[in-house]
Amino acid sequence: CRMAAMGAMRSYIGGALAALILAVPAGADSLRPRVSPAAASAFGDRAVEQVRLFATCAGRLSASIEHVWLIGQGNGNLDAAHRRSFDALIEAVLPDAEAAGFSGKQVWHLRIVAKAAQARLLQTAAFHTDQRRARAAGRLAIRQMSTCEALLLG
Description:
The protein has helices spanning 2-23, 37-71, 76-99, 104-127, 131-149. By secondary structure, the chain is mainly alpha-helical. Helix 2 crosses helix 5 (131-149) and helix 4 (104-127) runs antiparallel to helix 5 (131-149).
């Protein structure tokens, strides 16, 4: 029960962070606090970490959307809505990540790698003849998606 409460709190805090990031309008540089170069570097490192996570989740969701289309099971509309949320989060933090040296090409690379890995798990879970491997791949695919979904509100 305590672990569930901690997980719910972590989801709430992650969602609140996402809501705060999205609440600042694009081009609102005047709203950003003025900070020292050392602090800016720390913010940039944090932004790079966030962009990496958000891009990975967007890639996983892309694989899930395609898998739903392929086998006709699941909720592709919900996955698409979640992917749009991650796209918005990427857009919100990418300027700070770019200032820290992270490029848009790197975002696409992460998305593609995560999509390919998630697609492999989903295909193994759905089509592998070894039921043990199929179940293990299915559990890992669900765990990967749960990690991403826990970052979003609702």
